[in-house]
Amino acid sequence: MSKKELTLGIDIGGTTTTFGFVDIDGNILKESQFMTQAEDHVTAYLPRLFDAIDEAMAELEEGVVIKGIGMGAPNANYFRGTVENPPNLKWGGVVNLVELMQKKYKIPTVITNDANAAALGELRFGAARNMKNFILITLGTGLGSGIVVNGDVVYGHSGFAGEMGHLIVNYDGRLCGDGRRGCLEAYVSVTGIRRTVSKLLADSLVGSELRDVSQSELTGELITQAALKGDKIALEAFEYTGHILGQKLADTVLITSPEAIILFGGLANAKDLIFEPTLRHMEQSLFGPFKGTVKLMMSELQHRNAAVLGASGLIWHELEKQNAA
Ligand SMILES: [Zn+2]
Q1: What is the pLDDT at residue 215?
Q2: Ligand 1 centre and the CA of 114: distance in Å?
Q3: pLDDT confidence band for 3 (50 / 70 / 90)
Q4: How far is the CA of 179 from the centre of ligand 1 (A)?
Q5: C-alpha triplet 143, 70, 80: angle, nearest 5°
Q6: Rounded to the nearest 10 degrees, what angle do helices 42-58 and 97-105 cross at?
Q7: From ligand 1's centre to the CA of 166, what distance in Å?
Q8: Fold of 131-298
Q9: Do domains 5-121+304-324 and 131-298 have the same CATH topology?
Q10: Rounded to whole angstroms, how far apart are CA atoms 73 and 17?
Q11: Domain limits, the chain
């Protein structure tokens, strides 16, 4: 009897590290998480990661084989296997995480940023099964993206390709966290729509329940709830956000001609409030031959452990590529 094959998917976030053992069909057999403690150097972080993995591994049924490790992490470089100066982890410069993991576990290991991993999760286990060309966009605190062309993630020459969050939508626009002006994610993200609501409230006298909410307490959920009740400011904020996203998606379609664009993350939970204006403005802005060719879809991993499935999808995909070679 052949042994049950699993991969280990690890997602390293600034707040928590989550990992799980996942079979080829996307079933998570065992998962666990612990606090990342972002202020720690990597030499303090790694023993905690190893301990947590070893503990979980010991609880797996006998006879399973771990085929490889996939990791999603901020500022991760697929080619070099590194995590490079992520703003939300104080690990100290450039860390070759793939090398460190392989030294310990001696199995194939691969890393990329969380949005690219999410795209591979969607490809193997979610809305993009059977697609060869699509774009996954994560709408959280920022805007991340993974671009799949001809069945593989585009890493580019540097390994950092597919950073749609920092496409410019307005050269004199809002300041982005990277110090540049007018990046897409300064508008289209949970942070972005909060800024839009604040600006709309400041610029008008229209009544809104959001006037009673302080800037620090304003969340994507509150804006969504207000919009669902017909709040004019909240509705206008979604329209504005969808307008900017739709136009930039229309630009991006010209480059890779995706079959679908899949939205994931906090702001995608607003469903039609964000999907409708985004699709309408994308269609309005699309170059003729592309009109009606692109589906705008909701992630199918939205309410599952997408981060672990993404990291696991990354290594399953890599193992398949190696077998094909
Ligand atoms: Zn930026």
Answers
A1: 86
A2: 17
A3: confident
A4: 7
A5: 80
A6: 40
A7: 4
A8: Nucleotidyltransferase; domain 5 (3.30.420)
A9: yes
A10: 9
A11: 5-121+304-324, 131-298
Alpha helices in the chain (DSSP H): 42-58, 97-105, 114-125, 190-203, 220-228, 232-256, 272-285, 306-324
| pLDDT at res. 92 | 81
CATH number of 5-121+304-324: 3.30.420.40
Cα–ligand 1 centroid distance for 175 (angstroms): 8
**Model pLDDT for residues 84-118, shown as the tens digit of each residue:** 988 888 888 899 999 999 999 999 999 999 999 99
Question: 153 alpha carbon to ligand 1 midpoint, in Å?
Answer: 21
How confident is the model at residue 295, as a pLDDT?
A: 98
Q: Look at residues 254, 301, 306, 251 and name the one whose alpha carbon lies nearest to residue 281.
A: 251
Side chain identity, residue 122: E
Ligand 1 center to 112 CA (angstroms): 19
Taking the complete model, does pTM exceed 0.85, yes or no? yes
Q: What is the pLDDT of residues 230-277, one digit of tens each?
A: 999 999 999 999 999 999 999 999 999 999 999 999 999 999 999 999
| Distance from Cα 168 to the centre of ligand 1, integer Å | 8
What pLDDT, on a 0 to 100 scale, did the predictor assign at position 2? 64
Residue 186 Cα to ligand 1 middle (Å): 7
pLDDT tier at 303 (50, 70, 90 boundaries)? confident
Residue of 223, 248, 220 whose CA lies nearest to 236: 223
How many whole angstroms from 206 Cα to the centroid of ligand 1? Answer: 31
Q: Measure 184 CA to ligand 1 centroid, in angstroms.
A: 7
- Write down the residue that tokens 């199995």 correspond to: 107
Ligand 1 center–CA 207 separation, angstroms: 32
